[in-house]
Amino acid sequence: MERQRSSARCGLQQPLGGIHLLAQGGWHDFFVAQVGAAAALTGLLFVALSLNITRILQYAWLPARRE
Q1: How many domains does the chain have?
Q2: Which of 7, 16, 17, 36 allows an S-S link to 12, with CB 3.0 to 4.6 Å?
Q3: For residue range 1-32, what is the model confidence (pLDDT) as tens digits?
């Protein structure tokens, strides 16, 4: 009984018959920030493409690929 209390205090869980796994709660904010940064960079990529589409399509091999 004491073993379960100490593992609960440390933030550890025992879901699989004694195997200790770290709780995911500490990583939540990191993953939220990572997804937000990826979304922002993807948005900037689309903005850059839309602003420079004429310059990009000036390359000889690209207009043939869009068909």
Answers
A1: 1
A2: 7
A3: 445 444 455 555 555 555 555 556 678 889 99
